[in-house]
From TrEMBL:
The lineage of its organism: unclassified sequences, metagenomes, ecological metagenomes. Residues 583-794 form the Histidine kinase domain. This is histidine kinase. One of its GO terms (molecular function) is phosphorelay sensor kinase activity. One of its GO terms (cellular component) is plasma membrane. It catalyses: ATP + protein L-histidine = ADP + protein N-phospho-L-histidine. It comes from hydrothermal vent metagenome. It is an enzyme of class 2 (transferase). Its EC number is 2.7.13.3. Keywords: ATP-binding, Cell membrane, Kinase, Membrane, Nucleotide-binding, Phosphoprotein, Transferase, Transmembrane, Transmembrane helix, Two-component regulatory system.
Length: 799
């Protein structure tokens, strides 16, 4: 072979390998670009879900606070006492959630009545001297004008205190609702200042795997989250009005404003965006105001309240991967060119020379060539170096003899380009057969795990491969009728819309599964079927088919319907109870107070004009009015249990018992002993105080001995606390154990003891509503012991 021929072969190989490198480069770059786009789409989508979640959670909290406040206004005559209780509820909410900078009750005149400051995790109730006038703030005006049940959501902006933007910046959203009493009179608004740091920080964390900057924009293109802190909140400052995404990226912003989501690839980089509409259709909002005491410019519909979530990958970040890949391929290509050039140089060096075969050459990596650059001898070791895994070696050594030296350079190249892919295909086929067996095992294990469920499996072409006996029972087809047929064929037979099938496959691809319910008529009876379509995956997480799992849920649906009807009836009963409580509180207590006051005046002014019998009757009237008032209070307390959500928090039970003992003020002949220690528990403090007050008060009232002792104790019983209130009184006959816990029941005549017969009923209802139980141990003449339990693990959110 001439020098020119050697050179030509080298050039062809260089071009050939270079072409492969170029194809690989552009293929890999396209794959990387698609992957980057998918990652950014995922980031902005997750961010939108997070925003929606926060808004709904906050409004749920606001509804709870407002409902509780309105309930207090309707059941308490002592407004000051109600406000103190609500301040405690507000503080508990602030402490438990940790996302509200302030929780406030503002009256109809715009004056703060209650304000809870978060105070860096140590919520405090603001003193009266610190309460401010907020009647001229836009969020008060915009909320106070709303109807009952309406929710107001302010724009996201920076908090203003004392007429100035608070430093360091404190981003807040104000959620508000008007407050009404039972007569429909508006008393003010409840406002929670959501500390938006929680949401903004979570957005940044969710996008931590983004190639570029994650940005959050308001509807006017201003940054809430920007590439630089100094770019953020431009709309709040007169001298920074021009600093916005809308001004920096005008062309991109014009496209984003017109679309809810999409991707734009411009000279400025890759922009992936999605629009978040966090308000529900019946929520209210307005434009707000960046000035402290300026009103909103206008009221806005919910759809006008939107944010743009934007991921911006700069051009240099997009090209970083291509530069790295190009550098790797260029290095490899240069090495191959150098190797080919070195081979040509070796041919040129050995051209015209001859050499004898060395002894033992078969055990050394030798190639002997003639003066015409043909192979005289090549050792098996050399063949192994050139063509690894090629068998048999003896035939290859013979094949190379008399070949040109360039052949032993070309053949390895062709081996790696042609033979190895072919060999890989053979191996891949064997692997595929093994995977098929594994997939069969996977399907079998999934199918045998559910005997009460109809299961059908298909391959990726939607051809049915499995159909279990329960599927035959539910769908009415024998396995032999459906196996081997496609889902589309069965849908045509069943008159199922093609759109439903296409929707199912699309959702499975996006979310991993698709759930739906259908109604079927069978033997003249309506049956309800719940189904789930999901992918079937091998051990390497590659999908190789689809699975339909269906269950007849007719009995469950009937039970749920009955449950819904029961809940509806229960809600109606609760509404009637609430109305009854209002009637009792307002319509009965008002004339009762008048009777009591009149009797008091008569006792003071006309006592000397009445005889003993008259004074006795007058005193009896005062006593009966007092008893009736206590009875009404007891009924109201009883009706509130279970209707008003308890405020679960960590409380010191010892401190609660001490306060109760002080308030009950036992007579000198009765000693109350507390067996320490008493635990710190999670409970509603008001409920716990009512339980101890009623049990200790009941023991004092019914002691029946000149010297009495009441012992309060607690035992640790694994999953619950076991509290007890024990006395050394006259005891109770066992036949009355159930009766004493019934409302309005007393074992002694009402005239003998001033009692309402409600106290123990309240104890039982409180304890059982909170997951505990009440029991009694007693013998006539040997005292009584009331025992109640409190679970250690109380689900606060479920209360």
């Amino acid at each position: 072979m001439s020098k020119f021929q050697n050179f030509l072969v080298v050039i062809v190989l260089v071009i050939f390998v270079g072409g492969i490198a170029i194809v690989f480069y552009f293929s890999d770059m396209n794959r990387e670009a698609n992957l980057s786009k998918a990652v950014e789409v995922k980031n902005v989508s997750i961010t939108k879900v997070s925003i929606d979640h926060y808004f709904r959670m906050i409004v749920t909290d606001l509804l709870f606070l407002t409902d509780t406040l309105e309930s207090e206004l309707g059941s308490e005559d002592d407004v000051e006492h109600s406000l103190q209780k609500m301040a405690g509820y507000f503080r508990s909410m602030s402490l438990r959630k940790g996302i509200y900078d302030q929780i406030r009750l503002i009256n109809e005149e715009g004056r703060e009545v209650i304000r809870i400051n978060y105070n860096n995790g140590k919520p405090e109730i603001a003193g009266k001297e610190k309460l401010q006038q907020k009647g001229n703030r836009y969020y008060f005006r915009d909320t106070f004008r709303l109807k009952r049940g309406d929710v107001y959501v302010s724009p996201l902006d920076l908090n203003i205190e004392g007429g100035k933007i608070e430093v360091p910046f404190k981003p807040v959203i104000r959620f508000g609702m008007p407050v009404f009493d039972a007569d429909g009179k508006k008393h003010g608004i409840v406002v929670v200042n959501f500390l938006a740091f929680a949401l903004l920080d979570q957005i940044k964390k969710l996008a931590s795997n983004s190639l570029g900057d994650i940005m959050l924009l308001n509807a006017h293109g201003y940054w809430f989250i920007g590439p630089k802190p100094e770019d953020e909140w431009g709309f709040m400052f007169p001298d920074r009005k021009e600093i916005s995404f809308a001004n920096t990226y005008k062309d991109e912003w014009s496209i984003m404003r017109a679309q809810d989501s999409g991707q734009i690839n411009t000279n400025s980089g890759l922009f992936t965006f999605k629009t978040a509409f966090p308000l529900l259709a019946d929520w209210k909002t307005s434009t707000g105001s960046a000035e402290a005491f300026a009103p909103s410019k206008k009221q806005s519909p919910p759809e006008a309240y939107y944010w743009k979530i934007v991921s911006h990958v700069r051009p240099e970040a997009l090209s970083a991967g291509s530069r790295e890949l190009f550098a790797r391929l260029a290095t490899l290509y240069a090495a191959l060119v150098l190797a080919l050039g070195l081979s040509a140089w070796l041919v040129d060096r050995t051209f015209g020379k001859s050499i004898g075969m060395p002894a033992g050459g078969g055990l050394s990596p030798f190639v002997l060539i003639s003066a015409t650059a043909t192979v005289i001898f090549i050792s098996e070791v050399m063949v192994m170096l050139i063509l690894p895994f090629f068998q048999p070696l003896s035939k290859m050594t013979e094949a190379f003899v008399n070949a040109s030296f360039m052949t032993i350079m070309v053949v390895p190249t062709l081996y790696f380009l042609l033979y190895r892919p072919l060999n890989h295909h053979i191996v891949k086929r064997a692997i595929a057969e093994n995977e098929l067996r594994e997939k069969s095992d996977i399907i079998d294990s999934m199918l045998t795990s559910s005997v009460d469920m109809a299961i059908a499996a298909t391959d990726l072409d939607f051809r049915i491969t499995y159909y279990n006996p329960m599927a035959e029972k539910i769908f009415g087809y024998a396995a032999k009728e459906v196996i081997g047929r496609t889902v589309m064929q069965m849908h045509t037979k069943e008159n199922v819309e093609p759109e439903r099938f296409e929707k199912a496959i699309e959702i499975v691809a996006q979310k991993g599964e698709y759930r739906y319910s259908v109604e079927k008529e069978k033997d003249g009876e309506k049956r309800y079927i719940d189904s789930r379509v999901s992918g079937i995956y091998d051990k390497e997480n590659n999908m190789f088919g689809y699975m339909l799992m269906s269950r007849d849920v007719t009995d469950k649906r009937i039970s749920e319907k009955q449950k819904e009807e029961f809940i509806t009836e229960l809600d109606r009963a609760n509404t009637e109870l609430k109305d009854f409580a209002y009637i009792v509180s307002h319509d009965l207590k008002a004339p009762l107070r008048a009777i009591s006051s009149l009797a008091g005046w008569m006792s003071q002014d006309y006592s000397d004009k009445l005889d003993d019998e008259g004074r006795e009757h007058l005193q009896l009237l005062v006593s009966r009015a007092k008893r009736m008032n206590n009875l009404i209070d007891g009924i109201l307390k009883y009706s509130r249990i279970g209707r008003v959500k308890p405020q679960m928090e960590k409380i010191d039970s010892l401190a609660v018992v001490k306060n109760v003992v002080d308030s009950v003020d036992p007579p000198d002949n009765i000693v109350v002993k507390i067996v320490k220690p008493l635990p710190t528990i999670v409970y509603d403090q008001t409920h716990l105080a009512q339980v101890f007050q009623n049990l200790i008060g009941n023991a004092i009232t019914h002691l029946g001995k000149p010297e009495g002792e009441i012992i309060v104790a607690c035992d640790d019983e694994a999953e619950k606390w076991r509290f007890s209130v024990k006395d050394n009184g006259i005891g109770i006959d066992e036949k009355y154990f159930e009766r004493i816990f019934k409302i309005f029941q007393s074992l002694k005549a009402r005239d003998e003891l001033e009692t309402t017969g409600i106290g123990l009923s309240i104890v039982k209802k409180i304890v059982e509503t909170n997951g505990g139980a009440v029991t009694i141990k007693s013998k006539v003449g040997a005292g009584s012991e009331f025992i109640f339990t409190i679970p250690k693990q109380i689900d606060v959110d479920a209360q």
